[in-house]
Amino acid sequence: MTSPTLSPxxxxxxxxxxxxxxxxxxxxxxxxxxxxxxxxxxxxxLWVHEGGLTDLAGWGNGLTSLGRLAGLLASVLLLIxxxxxxxxxxVEQAWGQDELxxxxxxVGFTSIxxxxxxxxxxxxxxxxxxxxxxVGTFLxxxxxxxxxxxxxxxxxxxxxxxxxxxxxxxxRLRYESWHLLHLYxxxxxxxxxxxxxxxxxxxxxxxxxxVFWWGLYAAVLAAVVVFRVLxxxxxxxxxxxxxxxxxxxxxxxxxVHVVGRDMHRLPVRAGQFFQWRFLDGQGWTRANPYSLSxxxxxxxxxxxxxxxxxxxxxxxxxxxxxxxxxxGPYGRLHEGVATSERAVLIGAGIGITPLRALLESLPxxxxxTVLIQRVRSGEDVLGAELEDLARSRGARHYVLAGPRIKDxxxxxxxxxxxxxxxxxxxxxxxxxxERDVYVCGPTxxxxxxxxxxxxxxxxxxxxxxxxxxx
Length: 470
Hints:
Layout: H1 27-49, H2 59-84, H3 89-95, H4 97-127, H5 133-144, H6 148-165, H7 167-172, H8 175-182, H9 184-199, H10 207-239, E1 242-250, E2 253-259, E3 273-278, E4 288-291, E5 300-306, H11 310-316, E6 324-330, E7 343-348, H12 352-361, E8 369-375, H13 383-393, E9 396-401, H14 421-428, E10 436-441, H15 443-455, E11 463-467
């Protein structure tokens, strides 16, 4: 194993040069959430103002009016869903990727159900005044109303995204396939726009409605273009990143060191992650998320991954000089969110890598940091390096090895099955309630750790997670 120098490479407890100020305040999360709700309520108010309630009189008109409302709400939630994953810096830093992903999923499922309700209700409403029947009315609308064919195609694209977002379906898909399919969300939103312009009376009912809807579409489009396209291109071009070297840390574990120009100006903290594209041939268009496994030192960035699929296997074949494109940095798993001077870092498997970087950047001092590493037998990631780093930083380092407990969901290995989760955590770290807790690993395992930490009295504001899954 090749280990880097373990002396501290950034000032303890301070952000690297290029990172201005602290993290985005948590009240920004409340503000952005309140803004989202205000936008939704404003859509309802527009529907009421344009006669939505009065149109409820009568069976056919009532169904059509409710269908209009469902369509309007589906549209605004779809735009909010896209905005949530547009990587807007203040939103991403206020919520964190884990929480954003959860909200994004809830909003997405709600939006598609409302969209289906819109199609069903309006079809029933229009069918009430014709002799075509429900199926005939639906076909007539699709074939003869402006933009309806495009809207139907957009709905199919969005349904494809939703189906592949179901947990059982996600488990059967490779990350690359899942990521590619989710790009259809942008296509679905775009295909719905002509239908709303040509046949959506609420879009053109008043100057306020027109300005609101056009402004909302323009704002979301601008956010996607600026933060998902232009900013990554600017940073990639400015820093001219290339692969410096590739280190095979252990069987099935590889580290990639990336170097570039003016690296000290890259606004990244230890514990954060980038979306990486290695421009070495086929597959470069697909970005993959990897956390930093070493604190940024102004000269290079390092990621470490376990080889489990095509994307991670590519890392083993990279050669020095391969250009690298990045999106980010993302994530709130960094020292800037700390609420205490002491911390507990708890990681499992390859999820230990951002915690290794975080350990390097947290203030050094005897017992200021406790590192708990959960491993299976023979798969200790960066084990010797972590041990040396913990010793140099004055941290306590525990390695809990062995297969998982089979008869309950637990963060402990099988040999500790007689221990309750919270009891074991309190035994290892008696003062855990007064520390920040940073957790990274597989989702069910993380949920068990977080539950145990809360049972130990750790407040929610002191629990910081990074989900090691898509």
